[in-house]
Amino acid sequence: MLISQKHSLQRFYPAGLTIRANYSIIVRIRVHIYMEKKLTLKLDGAVIAQAKHYASRHENSLSGLVEAFFQQLTACPAAKTRQPHSPLVRELSGVISVQDIKNRKKDYTAYLTNKYA
Length: 117
Known about the structure:
Blueprint: E1 2-12, E2 18-28, H1 45-57, H2 62-75, H3 77-80, H4 87-92, H5 98-102, H6 104-116
Antiparallel strand pairs: 1-2
């Protein structure tokens, strides 16, 4: 939505000099139209109290937190669905230990030293 206002400016300066100007101010406003619906949830009282405390610390409402959660949850459904690993990946999983990965630079240096020594 655009709002436009026309203004006139007139300034008087010494020695009879007058400056007149016309200018327009254009303001762009975004209007979001949505319908609010009511939702009833059954939750543990302690969870509700903790959520209200969290919301007040972050200057938000409990409804705002729930709405943000649902928006994040449904934002990208394709990224949430994981495809199962192929049989080769499942077979190779765990072959290399984490310690082997951490020592790879030292092991490669030792390999090159033995190869070219």
